[in-house]
Amino acid sequence: MTILAPSILSADFTNLAQQIKLVELNGADWIHCDIMDGHFVPNITFGPILVNAAKRSTKLPVDVHLMIEKPDNYLEDFINAGANYVTVHQEEVIHLNRTVTKIKELGAKAGVAINPATPVDLLKDIAEYIDLVLVMSVNPGFGGQKFIGNSLKKIREAVQLRDKLNAHFLIEVDGGVDKHTASSILDAGCDVFVAGSSIFKADNISAATAELKNLITN
Which structural domain range is residue 196 located in? Predict the structure, then answer.
């Protein structure tokens, strides 16, 4: 079953609850929150307070992607705010097993993200312990970027790794996901589709959500 996870990074925060409800009513399965600190990536977004606002606006699972330095210091804050999934970056976390274990002990599911230049193979020793692998298909830091084509190869490699290890993680893709790229991403083996500007910047959020959901379902 494929999952659509609209990213509120591109939403209108003055109407956040209303916009979350629109995507929920039109096929969204999760709500995705992109957390940036201005250090790990060149942008600053929001923190646990807005994650909690999103959580209180929906019954859907909240998927939190931490593009931040020293994420261990903030795991409890984000999970207490309502995060059901917490994803950290392989490039930032030194003791990845310890971080993944902590996320699970705090009651959330654990994910690991890799940037476009990071090989999938680096996840082989953590893969059996995690619930999600996030393949970044743009260099993180800004919404609305163009999909990097060789990300399709990395999605397929993540599928192969999962099969080889008999692991059970979901494969999530974030960056440039829209009606033009969704089908090829689906064919490569993606389970969870994160879409921000292609949904929340559309003229009709409801129609854009329904269209993308239909593309990844059929």
Answer: 3-217
